[in-house]
Amino acid sequence: MDDIQKHILAERALAAARTCVASRFAGAAFTYVAGSLMRGEGTAFSDIDLVVVFPSLERAWESFTEDGFPVEAFVHDPQTLAHYLHQDADSGYPIMANMVATGCIMGSDIDSARVIQAKAARMLAAGPKPLAGVDYDLLRYQVTDLADDLRGTRPPEEIAAIAALLYQKLADLILLGRGAWAGRGKWAPRLMRELDAQLAAEFDMAFGLAAAGDGARFLALADRELAVHGGRYFEGFRQNAPLEARRLE
């Protein structure tokens, strides 16, 4: 798809967004229209992300189709939107913050939308909170445990399955451990390329070999990354069950 086709697709998506906001979300103060289509990176199968903000609302979320485009709508008021923006900052995955910061604004209360958008942009620029505490220990433990599963002699299909589980955990350790935001699914390789193109290429190659049944390079990469964080973390790890985790039967 060339640039002209992408532009046409983006204009179609924006028109579809206007239509569905007017028909489904009457009374909304403003909306952010986001996603790969708005960035000029979409395909015919890409969806439209809508962050719809009402003056006051309990909560809602829905998916639907508009003019052939799949649409994901995240419906909020300013207070619930603020909650999820801060939850992004705590989790290390800035999903909502990215949609708000990069979304195309439409609606009646443009000024309020711009204020929130600027806050989201500042949050993204500040980066995630440093890896520490229980979440850090758990991530190191998970990478260690999965890496250890790759050490033994296994059938190729088991190596591929282990590598698939290790992919996200190791990507999180690489990104968050270097003060960069993490991303799930397709966002993980994109963010690694932005962080370090050479490391991302090595990661992709090692994972590709592991997916084909040869886990040696992916294991070496995991061990090297764990070394940055003090080495393997298994001995001494403890995860307490919640106090309410009891049954009488």
In short:
The protein is α+β, with helices and mostly antiparallel strands and 249 residues long. 55% of the residues lie in helices and 12% in strands.
How many β-strand stretches? 5
Low-pLDDT segments:
none
Span between termini: 60 Å
| Percent in strands | 5-15%
Largest sheet features: 5 strands, mixed
Task: Give the key terms.
globular; 5-stranded mixed β-sheet
Question: Can you lay out the helices and strands and say which pair or pack?
Answer:
Blueprint: H1 3-24, E1 30-34, E2 48-53, E3 60-66, E4 69-76, H2 78-91, H3 95-102, E5 104-107, H4 110-126, H5 133-149, H6 156-177, H7 187-195, H8 197-211, H9 216-228
Parallel strand pairs: 2-4
Antiparallel strand pairs: 1-2, 1-5, 3-4
Helix pairs in contact: 2-4, 3-4, 5-6, 5-9, 6-7, 6-9, 7-8, 8-9
Describe this structure in words.
By secondary structure, the protein is an alpha+beta fold. It contains nine helices and five strands. The chain has helices at residues 3-24, 78-91, 95-102, 110-126, 133-149, 156-177, 187-195, 197-211, 216-228; strands spanning 30-34, 48-53, 60-66, 69-76, 104-107. Strands 3-4-2-1-5 form a five-stranded mixed β-sheet. Helix 2 runs parallel beside helix 4 (110-126) and helix 6 packs across helix 7. The mean pLDDT is 91.
